[in-house]
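Appendix B. Raw example, untouched.
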Amino acid sequence: MNCVFVQIRCRPGTGYDVADAIALREIHSELYSTSGEYDLLMKLYIPEGADVGKYINDNVLDIDGIERTLTTLTFKAF
């Protein structure tokens, strides 16, 4: 499994709805509300060998209220 972090910017007023929709899909390991440029920070594990972009596109980006995302790939945990 590959760990990735996805920062999510939501349309104004939709952050809780987006978080609820993500929670219902049960694809994340952790999900936080954040301050700053993005509204949510999601940690998820992508199955080994899966295309990261396609996985996020198919499982996250169709949620209503998401304006933009920023995905950070991880390589090694210390």
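End of appendix B.
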